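Fold this complex.
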Amino acid sequence: KQEVTQIPAALSVPEGENLVLNCSFTDSAIYNLQWFRQDPGKGLTSLLLIQSSQREQTSGRLNASLDKSSGRSTLYIAASQPGDSATYLCAGDSGTYKYIFGTGTRLKVLA
Amino acid sequence: EAQVTQNPRYLITVTGKKLTVTCSQNMNHEYMSWYRQDPGLGLRQIYYSMNVEVTDKGDVPEGYKVSRKEKRNFPLILESPSPNQTSLYFCASSLGMMNQPQHFGDGTRLSIL
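Structure:
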């Protein structure tokens, strides 16, 4: 059964730091992968989608990559800001019409 | 504005009293899905639908029903709610399942006493 691990579970950094969040799937056969942001009391906001033919996606200060051979994805956040504070979730699909989510990384960026 | 709308946002009810959580999207999306989010367990998929009249079980379907009679609506039905269904529920939609981003509603917090 596909399982997803996100490391670290929580992270607190000073403003301006570059940081990396990790996501790992037990089954490396990931068809597409999506990174989300969740703010307290809110739904999930899609940040980046890596489609089946892609290995990487970038949006502003965010960059996500997927290594399909290992089933690992990283989300890189450059020059972090207090407004980046949120829980970050990764989710993947193995071509089964079912998305599997990680439990998230709680990020706090200190001013 | 493109959005996924869930109602109600909050509900406290009692064991055994049937309830329905509605979900509607205005983006003409084919794929819709329901998730529940519990501390330490993350989001788990309950049911999904690939199109009108096409639904299938996710990882935790027990105790839930869904229907997809119209493209825009995908209600979640709890016929006989129990306390272990107390959770935060999310509806999501996407244009298709493959290679399309999912859009989420703001969530429904259910408490079943």
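Chain A has a mean pLDDT of 91.
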